[in-house]
Specification:
The protein is an alpha/beta fold and 589 residues long. It has 3 domains: 140 residues, Nucleotidyltransferase, domain 5 (2-Layer Sandwich); 208 residues, Nucleotidyltransferase, domain 5 (2-Layer Sandwich), CATH 3.30.420.40; 195 residues, no CATH class. Strand 3 and strand 4 form a beta hairpin. The longest helix has 25 residues. The chain is globular and about 80 Å long. The protein starts with a strand and ends with a strand.
């Protein structure tokens, strides 16, 4: 499938064509930037060609109308679908969505939350629906990755009527943060669900994301892309009391203040330029305002790194991306210096010699540093192409319906009685990590499983508490314990073996030990789209034609608010060659 991807902003237009199959590769990349009344600058890359020049387009809207001619000139007109970056999807859009009239209206209604971005995104959507009326067009949302954030992260401490009106934190740059987290996990050669990462996207827009065991736990941006780090023209964190102060002292309206925070603040407000390259050059020549701007920029980012490491309870790696993150060794150094107490040290030569060709993820930490530091190019357009193709494949009747695969390591679901025995009467577990399934979490505490042959240390506890304790292990784990463990659907634990669980305050011996049968969690809307029903068994294919395999008899579980994904255990993941993330294909019989 060939997917044309658009990232349309208020001051630039970026687009590309990607071939999506077992691998995703770029076919063509184009951009129009630096718009002025007399025209703009463009760049086209196709094969060995890297063409730059000037075009007579005065705005991104005019430039988009010229895209078909540019594609025709390079002979890359064959397109199967179009994917659009949409900055704000609110709480409604948790996955890529087909752009029909209803969806366009719903996105337009979210424009007050992203006044700089959503209108520009939608203008591109409307033009593309006119230019390519017969092609399916899909919205991929910056906010979707962050919808796994727990309520204590997304909730502002404001009156209930404000929250009921929609005031909450969302987070942005989700496509970028998701990609670089997966890329870092590939380089570390450990599953993403086993890692605690901080992704730092530094560009004209900037944000930091805590990626806790595969899921976004928190992001520096909030209800709008204005909160958080200092950016090119955006202020980042500002005391909301500033609105009242500026209204009283300077007579400014809310709109005037908001416009200034978006367009006249950040690096531009501090040093008169939104370009970090200019500011670094001026700082080196002794400009005090440029020097202060750099110090504020780095300090804000460093503060978020420390906060997110504390929130996750650990840190395996940080990842720099975005124009500044990729290209400014001095900014990376400023942010990382002083984090030795966390086990993070940079290597000067590696930091200065970063090479990002071929989608590399360069490691720049000092040898012996406990925390790794990566630099990699973000690939938002590539991720949009992948997600567009996956969404369309899942929606094709009779086609291969694609589903995300989640690998479930050994864990326990405890009853109140078990918690009391293991941790003390009335003990309350620490709900440390939210899971994709709404209302579910992983506790900060760990327990040990004891069998006649051996022990399994640091076993995760998943919540909420259940009426009966259930322990889920893999077949390999059963041999380590020395217990013959049956394969069961979760919840069906009658006549199952006993095992002893050890905690800091005691032990608890119980039945309920099972190898959990693979299953699909989904919600009514996705079940309807996929053509599956609660309680039925389906087949899921994983991998390519030569080395792939099919998981038969996979139970479907439909829940009102469930997140759609397939759950398999570690033995099944190893058999399928799944290391970080994977997609399965629902086999239609």
């Amino acid at each position: 499938m060939h997917v044309l991807v658009f990232n349309a902003g208020s001051s630039s237009l970026k687009f590309g064509i990607f071939s999506v199959g077992t691998e995703t590769r770029g076919v063509f990349k184009g951009s129009y930037e630096r718009f002025r009344s007399r025209g703009c600058e463009y760049r086209f890359r196709h094969g060995e060609t890297d063409e730059r020049g000037a075009a007579e387009f005065g705005s991104p809207t005019e430039a988009l109308k010229g895209v078909p001619a540019a594609l025709k000139r390079f002979g890359v007109e064959a397109i199967d679908a179009i994917g659009h970056r949409i900055v704000h999807g609110g709480a409604r859009f948790s996955s890529p969505t087909l752009l029909d009239d209803e969806t366009v209206e719903a996105i337009a209604a979210l424009s007050p939350l992203a006044p700089l971005h959503n209108p520009a995104n939608l203008e591109a959507v409307r033009l593309c629906r006119g230019l390519w009326p017969d092609l399916p067009q899909v919205a991929v949302f910056d906010t979707a990755f962050h919808l796994s954030n727990p309520a204590f992260v997304t909730t502002y401490a404001v009156p209930a009527r404000w929250r009921e009106a929609g005031l909450r934190r969302y987070g942005f740059h989700g496509t970028s943060h998701k990609y670089v987290a997966e890329r870092a996990a590939e380089e570390i050669d450990r599953p993403l669900f086993d890692l605690q990462l901080v992704s730092i996207h530094l560009g004209n827009g900037a944000s930091v994301c805590a990626v806790n065991r595969g899921h976004s736990m928190d992001s520096s941006m909030g209800m709008t892309p204005l909160e958080g780090l200092v950016m090119g023209t955006r202020s980042g964190d500002v005391d909301p009391g500033a609105f009242g102060f500026l209204s009283r002292e300077l007579g400014l309206s809310v709109q005037q203040i908001e416009d200034a925070l978006y367009d006249e603040s950040g690096l531009k407000g501090l040093a008169g330029s939104s370009d970090m390259r200019d500011i670094e050059d001026r700082a080196a020549k002794g400009d005090p305002q440029a020097q202060l701007a750099i110090e504020i920029y780095a300090y804000r980012a460093k503060k978020y790194v420390g906060a997110y490491a504390a929130a996750m309870g650990g840190l395996d790696a940080i990842v720099f991306t975005g124009g500044i993150g990729e290209n400014s060794p001095s900014m990376r150094r400023r942010i990382c210096d002083g984090l030795d107490f966390m086990g993070l040290q940079l290597d000067h030569d590696r930091n200065m010699g970063v090479n990002l060709s071929g989608h590399a993820a360069s490691q720049i930490q000092a040898y012996g540093s406990r925390v790794r530091v990566f630099v990699t190019e973000t690939a938002e357009q590539l991720m949009i192409a992948r997600e567009t193709a996956a969404m369309l494949a899942a929606g094709q009747p009779g086609g291969q319906l694609r589903l995300p695969i989640a690998v479930s390591a050994r864990h326990v679901h405890l009853s109140r009685e078990a918690v009391d025995a293991l941790f003390g009467k009335g003990y309350v577990l620490d709900q440390a990590t939210p899971l994709r399934q709404p209302g579910h979490w992983a506790a900060g505490e760990r327990v040990t499983l004891v069998g006649p042959k051996g022990r399994l240390e640091r076993v995760a506890i998943l919540g909420p508490l259940r009426e009966r304790t259930q322990i889920e292990v893999s077949r390999t784990d059963s041999f380590a314990l020395g217990i013959d463990v049956p394969v069961r659907d979760s919840g069906r634990i009658e006549a199952t073996p006993q095992v002893t669980i050890e905690g800091p305050s005691g032990s608890f011996t119980t039945d309920g030990l099972i190898i959990a049968a693979r299953h699909i969690h989904t919600n009514p809307a996705d079940a309807k789209r996929l053509g599956i029903q609660d309680g039925e068994y389906v087949d899921v294919r994983v991998g390519d034609e030569d080395r792939g395999l099919t998981f038969g008899r996979t139970l479907v579980r439909v829940g009102a608010n469930s997140f759609t994904e397939v759950h398999i255990d570690t033995d099944e993941a190893n058999a399928a060659g799944i290391e970080v993330t994977a997609m399965g294909q629902l086999v239609q019989n």
